[in-house]
Protein: HTH-like domain-containing protein
Organism: Petrotoga miotherma DSM 10691
Amino acid sequence: MDTSSLSKKKHSNSKTRGFCYTVNGDKVPDEFVIAELIKIKEHLNMYVSKQKTIGSTKLCAYFRKNYGIIINHKKMRRLKHEIGLVGKYTKH
C-alpha cells in the first residue's frame, strides 16, 4: 500500500466562530468578552491578592450569571490565553 497518498486532513471548521450566544439566543461578539476579561485582569492587578487568576469555569459561570452569555470553558481558556490572563504553574 502506498502511504504517500494518505495524508491527514484538517477539519474544515477548525477556525473559531468569533461570537457566543446569550441565554435568549442572541449573538455576542468575542470582542465584548475580551473587553470584559481585560477589565477583570486590571481589577485583579489593582487588588493584589492570593488569587491572581480566575479559573475558566468560574469565569464562565460569572458571564452566565451577570451577562447571560453562554461560553464553553475551553473557549474561555483560549480567550484567556489571548490576553495573558492564564497563571503560570510551577513544579514543586
Q: What stands out?
A: The helical segments are 30-46, 56-66, 73-83. DSSP finds three helices and three strands in the chain.
